[in-house]
Design brief:
Length: about 325
Protein backbone atom coordinates (compact mmCIF):
# COMPACT_ATOMS: atom_id res chain seq x y z
CA UNK A 1 0.00 0.00 0.00
CA UNK A 2 2.80 2.40 0.91
CA UNK A 3 4.48 1.64 -2.40
CA UNK A 4 1.24 2.35 -4.27
CA UNK A 5 0.73 5.64 -2.43
CA UNK A 6 4.29 6.66 -3.17
CA UNK A 7 3.80 5.90 -6.87
CA UNK A 8 0.60 7.92 -6.97
CA UNK A 9 2.26 10.82 -5.17
CA UNK A 10 5.12 10.88 -7.67
CA UNK A 11 2.64 10.83 -10.55
CA UNK A 12 0.66 13.67 -9.00
CA UNK A 13 3.83 15.73 -8.51
CA UNK A 14 4.81 15.15 -12.11
CA UNK A 15 1.48 16.62 -13.22
CA UNK A 16 1.83 19.76 -11.09
CA UNK A 17 3.88 21.79 -13.60
CA UNK A 18 1.43 20.90 -16.36
CA UNK A 19 -1.58 21.90 -14.26
CA UNK A 20 0.10 25.09 -13.12
CA UNK A 21 1.04 25.91 -16.71
CA UNK A 22 -2.54 25.52 -17.85
CA UNK A 23 -3.82 27.72 -15.03
CA UNK A 24 -1.42 30.57 -15.85
CA UNK A 25 -1.54 30.24 -19.63
CA UNK A 26 -0.48 32.24 -21.53
CA UNK A 27 2.71 33.56 -19.99
CA UNK A 28 4.56 34.54 -23.17
CA UNK A 29 4.15 35.27 -26.86
CA UNK A 30 2.11 32.81 -28.93
CA UNK A 31 2.90 31.98 -32.55
CA UNK A 32 0.03 31.48 -34.98
CA UNK A 33 1.27 29.67 -38.08
CA UNK A 34 -0.42 30.47 -41.38
CA UNK A 35 0.57 27.81 -43.93
CA UNK A 36 0.42 30.24 -46.86
CA UNK A 37 2.26 33.34 -48.03
CA UNK A 38 1.90 36.74 -46.40
CA UNK A 39 -0.76 38.99 -47.87
CA UNK A 40 -3.01 36.17 -49.02
CA UNK A 41 -6.64 35.64 -47.97
CA UNK A 42 -5.91 33.26 -45.07
CA UNK A 43 -3.11 35.52 -43.85
CA UNK A 44 -5.55 38.44 -43.76
CA UNK A 45 -8.05 36.45 -41.69
CA UNK A 46 -5.34 35.24 -39.32
CA UNK A 47 -3.90 38.68 -38.60
CA UNK A 48 -7.28 40.16 -37.75
CA UNK A 49 -8.12 37.26 -35.42
CA UNK A 50 -4.65 37.18 -33.86
CA UNK A 51 -4.83 40.86 -32.98
CA UNK A 52 -8.21 40.47 -31.27
CA UNK A 53 -7.23 37.27 -29.45
CA UNK A 54 -4.05 38.94 -28.21
CA UNK A 55 -6.10 41.55 -26.41
CA UNK A 56 -8.29 38.88 -24.81
CA UNK A 57 -5.41 36.62 -23.76
CA UNK A 58 -3.15 39.42 -22.54
CA UNK A 59 -0.22 38.15 -24.60
CA UNK A 60 0.83 38.95 -28.13
CA UNK A 61 0.05 36.47 -30.89
CA UNK A 62 2.47 36.83 -33.77
CA UNK A 63 1.58 35.46 -37.19
CA UNK A 64 4.25 33.42 -38.93
CA UNK A 65 3.86 32.49 -42.59
CA UNK A 66 5.17 29.00 -43.32
CA UNK A 67 4.10 28.35 -46.89
CA UNK A 68 4.73 25.41 -49.19
CA UNK A 69 3.07 22.28 -50.56
CA UNK A 70 -0.49 23.59 -50.39
CA UNK A 71 -0.32 24.39 -46.69
CA UNK A 72 1.08 21.03 -45.60
CA UNK A 73 4.52 22.39 -44.62
CA UNK A 74 3.07 24.82 -42.09
CA UNK A 75 0.55 22.29 -40.82
CA UNK A 76 3.32 19.73 -40.31
CA UNK A 77 5.34 22.24 -38.33
CA UNK A 78 2.49 22.77 -35.89
CA UNK A 79 1.72 19.04 -35.67
CA UNK A 80 5.33 18.47 -34.59
CA UNK A 81 5.48 21.42 -32.17
CA UNK A 82 5.39 21.14 -28.39
CA UNK A 83 1.76 20.77 -27.21
CA UNK A 84 1.98 23.72 -24.83
CA UNK A 85 -0.42 26.16 -26.45
CA UNK A 86 2.28 28.46 -27.78
CA UNK A 87 2.19 27.24 -31.38
CA UNK A 88 -1.16 27.40 -33.15
CA UNK A 89 -2.34 26.79 -36.71
CA UNK A 90 -4.91 28.80 -38.63
CA UNK A 91 -5.72 26.77 -41.73
CA UNK A 92 -8.50 26.74 -44.28
CA UNK A 93 -10.40 24.02 -46.14
CA UNK A 94 -7.03 22.65 -47.28
CA UNK A 95 -6.82 20.83 -43.95
CA UNK A 96 -9.62 18.59 -45.26
CA UNK A 97 -8.58 18.28 -48.88
CA UNK A 98 -4.94 17.49 -48.06
CA UNK A 99 -6.11 14.16 -46.65
CA UNK A 100 -6.81 13.05 -50.24
CA UNK A 101 -4.63 15.36 -52.33
CA UNK A 102 -1.37 14.24 -50.73
CA UNK A 103 -0.40 10.58 -50.82
CA UNK A 104 2.13 10.96 -48.01
CA UNK A 105 1.36 13.49 -45.29
CA UNK A 106 3.70 13.94 -42.29
CA UNK A 107 0.60 14.26 -40.11
CA UNK A 108 -2.98 13.04 -39.90
CA UNK A 109 -5.49 15.90 -40.33
CA UNK A 110 -7.95 14.26 -37.94
CA UNK A 111 -5.55 12.85 -35.35
CA UNK A 112 -2.53 15.17 -35.14
CA UNK A 113 -4.29 18.26 -33.79
CA UNK A 114 -6.54 19.60 -31.07
CA UNK A 115 -9.42 21.83 -32.14
CA UNK A 116 -10.20 25.37 -30.95
CA UNK A 117 -13.04 26.32 -33.29
CA UNK A 118 -14.22 27.58 -36.66
CA UNK A 119 -13.31 31.16 -37.58
CA UNK A 120 -15.07 32.18 -40.79
CA UNK A 121 -16.31 30.82 -44.10
CA UNK A 122 -15.31 32.97 -47.05
CA UNK A 123 -17.26 32.89 -50.34
CA UNK A 124 -15.44 32.44 -53.63
CA UNK A 125 -15.74 34.59 -56.75
CA UNK A 126 -15.27 33.58 -60.37
CA UNK A 127 -13.32 36.35 -62.10
CA UNK A 128 -11.36 37.03 -65.29
CA UNK A 129 -8.95 39.56 -66.73
CA UNK A 130 -10.71 42.91 -67.29
CA UNK A 131 -10.92 42.59 -71.08
CA UNK A 132 -12.17 39.00 -71.19
CA UNK A 133 -14.84 38.59 -73.92
CA UNK A 134 -17.70 37.00 -71.91
CA UNK A 135 -20.09 39.33 -70.04
CA UNK A 136 -21.98 36.94 -67.74
CA UNK A 137 -21.58 33.47 -66.26
CA UNK A 138 -23.51 31.70 -69.00
CA UNK A 139 -21.46 33.53 -71.60
CA UNK A 140 -18.28 32.63 -69.74
CA UNK A 141 -19.18 28.94 -69.66
CA UNK A 142 -20.02 28.94 -73.37
CA UNK A 143 -16.75 30.70 -74.20
CA UNK A 144 -14.69 28.31 -72.10
CA UNK A 145 -16.26 25.28 -73.75
CA UNK A 146 -15.57 26.67 -77.21
CA UNK A 147 -12.04 27.93 -76.50
CA UNK A 148 -10.90 25.53 -73.77
CA UNK A 149 -7.51 24.93 -75.39
CA UNK A 150 -6.72 28.64 -75.50
CA UNK A 151 -7.90 29.73 -72.03
CA UNK A 152 -5.60 29.70 -68.99
CA UNK A 153 -6.81 29.27 -65.43
CA UNK A 154 -4.63 30.70 -62.65
CA UNK A 155 -4.37 29.28 -59.14
CA UNK A 156 -2.13 29.71 -56.12
CA UNK A 157 -0.82 26.13 -56.23
CA UNK A 158 -2.10 22.66 -55.43
CA UNK A 159 -4.31 22.68 -52.34
CA UNK A 160 -4.90 26.43 -52.41
CA UNK A 161 -8.47 27.74 -52.31
CA UNK A 162 -8.19 28.93 -55.91
CA UNK A 163 -7.07 25.45 -56.99
CA UNK A 164 -10.00 23.76 -55.23
CA UNK A 165 -12.53 26.21 -56.60
CA UNK A 166 -11.18 25.81 -60.10
CA UNK A 167 -11.28 22.04 -59.85
CA UNK A 168 -14.92 22.16 -58.78
CA UNK A 169 -15.81 24.76 -61.44
CA UNK A 170 -14.23 22.75 -64.27
CA UNK A 171 -15.98 19.62 -63.01
CA UNK A 172 -19.34 21.41 -62.99
CA UNK A 173 -18.99 22.76 -66.53
CA UNK A 174 -17.37 19.51 -67.72
CA UNK A 175 -14.50 21.43 -69.31
CA UNK A 176 -10.80 21.15 -68.49
CA UNK A 177 -8.73 24.29 -68.89
CA UNK A 178 -4.98 24.80 -68.97
CA UNK A 179 -4.04 25.59 -65.37
CA UNK A 180 -1.20 27.88 -64.42
CA UNK A 181 -0.12 27.32 -60.79
CA UNK A 182 1.62 30.12 -58.91
CA UNK A 183 3.50 30.33 -55.63
CA UNK A 184 0.75 32.17 -53.81
CA UNK A 185 -2.36 34.21 -54.51
CA UNK A 186 -0.54 37.54 -54.96
CA UNK A 187 1.44 36.57 -58.07
CA UNK A 188 -1.61 34.90 -59.60
CA UNK A 189 -3.73 38.02 -59.12
CA UNK A 190 -0.94 40.23 -60.48
CA UNK A 191 -0.78 38.26 -63.71
CA UNK A 192 -4.58 38.19 -64.01
CA UNK A 193 -4.69 41.98 -63.67
CA UNK A 194 -1.94 42.24 -66.26
CA UNK A 195 -3.71 39.93 -68.71
CA UNK A 196 -1.05 37.19 -68.64
CA UNK A 197 -3.71 34.65 -67.56
CA UNK A 198 -7.43 34.60 -68.25
CA UNK A 199 -9.58 33.22 -65.44
CA UNK A 200 -9.36 32.66 -61.71
CA UNK A 201 -11.58 31.71 -58.78
CA UNK A 202 -10.60 33.06 -55.37
CA UNK A 203 -11.84 34.18 -51.98
CA UNK A 204 -13.69 37.46 -51.52
CA UNK A 205 -11.00 38.47 -49.02
CA UNK A 206 -8.67 38.71 -52.02
CA UNK A 207 -11.02 39.80 -54.80
CA UNK A 208 -13.63 42.20 -53.37
CA UNK A 209 -11.54 45.36 -53.71
CA UNK A 210 -10.47 44.40 -57.23
CA UNK A 211 -14.07 43.77 -58.26
CA UNK A 212 -15.29 47.01 -56.70
CA UNK A 213 -12.55 48.93 -58.50
CA UNK A 214 -13.41 47.33 -61.84
CA UNK A 215 -9.90 45.93 -62.12
CA UNK A 216 -11.22 42.46 -62.95
CA UNK A 217 -14.36 41.15 -64.62
CA UNK A 218 -16.52 39.26 -62.11
CA UNK A 219 -19.07 36.61 -63.04
CA UNK A 220 -20.41 34.98 -59.89
CA UNK A 221 -20.08 34.45 -56.15
CA UNK A 222 -20.43 30.99 -54.59
CA UNK A 223 -22.54 32.07 -51.61
CA UNK A 224 -26.25 31.09 -51.40
CA UNK A 225 -27.28 34.73 -51.71
CA UNK A 226 -25.79 37.87 -53.23
CA UNK A 227 -23.35 39.75 -51.03
CA UNK A 228 -24.12 43.17 -49.60
CA UNK A 229 -20.64 44.34 -50.61
CA UNK A 230 -21.12 43.12 -54.20
CA UNK A 231 -24.87 43.50 -54.82
CA UNK A 232 -24.59 43.42 -58.61
CA UNK A 233 -22.65 40.15 -58.66
CA UNK A 234 -25.00 37.17 -59.23
CA UNK A 235 -24.63 33.92 -57.37
CA UNK A 236 -23.32 30.87 -59.23
CA UNK A 237 -26.75 29.30 -58.72
CA UNK A 238 -28.37 32.22 -60.55
CA UNK A 239 -26.06 31.45 -63.45
CA UNK A 240 -27.07 27.80 -63.52
CA UNK A 241 -24.38 26.27 -61.31
CA UNK A 242 -26.36 25.29 -58.21
CA UNK A 243 -23.64 22.94 -56.96
CA UNK A 244 -21.12 25.79 -56.79
CA UNK A 245 -22.47 26.90 -53.40
CA UNK A 246 -19.52 26.59 -51.04
CA UNK A 247 -17.03 28.63 -49.07
CA UNK A 248 -13.48 28.41 -47.84
CA UNK A 249 -13.81 27.80 -44.12
CA UNK A 250 -11.03 28.49 -41.64
CA UNK A 251 -10.29 26.80 -38.32
CA UNK A 252 -7.90 27.22 -35.41
CA UNK A 253 -5.84 24.24 -34.22
CA UNK A 254 -3.09 23.31 -31.75
CA UNK A 255 -0.77 20.27 -31.58
CA UNK A 256 -2.25 16.99 -30.36
CA UNK A 257 -1.89 16.61 -26.60
CA UNK A 258 -2.35 20.27 -25.73
CA UNK A 259 -3.94 20.53 -22.29
CA UNK A 260 -7.78 20.66 -22.45
CA UNK A 261 -7.77 23.68 -20.14
CA UNK A 262 -5.54 25.54 -22.59
CA UNK A 263 -7.75 24.56 -25.50
CA UNK A 264 -10.77 25.84 -23.61
CA UNK A 265 -8.94 29.12 -22.97
CA UNK A 266 -8.14 29.43 -26.67
CA UNK A 267 -11.70 28.61 -27.70
CA UNK A 268 -13.10 31.23 -25.35
CA UNK A 269 -10.62 33.82 -26.62
CA UNK A 270 -11.61 32.97 -30.18
CA UNK A 271 -15.30 33.50 -29.35
CA UNK A 272 -14.50 36.94 -27.93
CA UNK A 273 -12.31 37.81 -30.92
CA UNK A 274 -15.05 36.92 -33.38
CA UNK A 275 -17.34 39.45 -31.69
CA UNK A 276 -14.67 42.16 -31.76
CA UNK A 277 -15.95 45.28 -33.53
CA UNK A 278 -12.84 45.65 -35.68
CA UNK A 279 -12.94 41.99 -36.74
CA UNK A 280 -16.62 42.19 -37.63
CA UNK A 281 -16.16 45.40 -39.61
CA UNK A 282 -13.01 44.27 -41.41
CA UNK A 283 -14.52 40.91 -42.26
CA UNK A 284 -17.60 42.69 -43.63
CA UNK A 285 -15.42 44.86 -45.86
CA UNK A 286 -13.95 41.63 -47.24
CA UNK A 287 -17.44 40.23 -47.92
CA UNK A 288 -17.36 37.66 -45.15
CA UNK A 289 -18.36 37.45 -41.50
CA UNK A 290 -17.20 35.70 -38.32
CA UNK A 291 -18.66 32.33 -37.44
CA UNK A 292 -21.38 32.47 -34.76
CA UNK A 293 -20.37 31.63 -31.20
CA UNK A 294 -21.75 28.09 -31.36
CA UNK A 295 -19.30 27.29 -34.18
CA UNK A 296 -16.22 28.64 -32.41
CA UNK A 297 -15.94 25.34 -30.54
CA UNK A 298 -13.76 22.21 -30.80
CA UNK A 299 -16.82 20.08 -31.56
CA UNK A 300 -17.97 22.25 -34.46
CA UNK A 301 -14.52 22.37 -36.05
CA UNK A 302 -13.98 18.63 -35.75
CA UNK A 303 -17.40 17.90 -37.27
CA UNK A 304 -16.70 20.32 -40.13
CA UNK A 305 -13.33 18.75 -40.86
CA UNK A 306 -14.78 15.24 -40.91
CA UNK A 307 -17.65 16.18 -43.21
CA UNK A 308 -15.42 18.12 -45.60
CA UNK A 309 -12.92 15.25 -45.92
CA UNK A 310 -15.83 13.04 -46.93
CA UNK A 311 -17.18 15.67 -49.37
CA UNK A 312 -13.96 16.38 -51.25
CA UNK A 313 -12.49 12.87 -51.34
CA UNK A 314 -14.60 11.57 -54.27
CA UNK A 315 -14.18 14.82 -56.23
CA UNK A 316 -10.40 14.76 -55.93
CA UNK A 317 -10.21 11.07 -56.73
CA UNK A 318 -12.41 11.56 -59.82
CA UNK A 319 -10.18 14.43 -61.00
CA UNK A 320 -7.09 12.29 -60.46
CA UNK A 321 -5.18 15.27 -59.03
CA UNK A 322 -2.58 14.27 -56.47
CA UNK A 323 0.61 15.71 -55.04
CA UNK A 324 3.53 13.77 -53.60
Amino acid sequence: MKKLLATLSIAALALLPQVAGAQTYPERTITMVVPFSAGGPTDTVARLVAEAMSRELGQQIIVENVGGAGGTVGAARVAQAAPDGYTLLLHHIGMATSATLYRKLPYNPLESFEYAGLVTEVPMTIIARPDFPADDLQGLIAYLKEHKDDVTYANAGIGAASHLCGMLFMSEIETQLTTVPYQGTGPAMTDLLGGQVDVMCDQTTNTTSQIQAGAVKAYAVTSPERLEQLPDLPTAAEGGLASMQFGIWHGLYAPKGTDPAIMERLSQALKVALKDKNVVERFAALATKPEPEENATPQALKAKLESEIARWKPLIEAAGVYAD
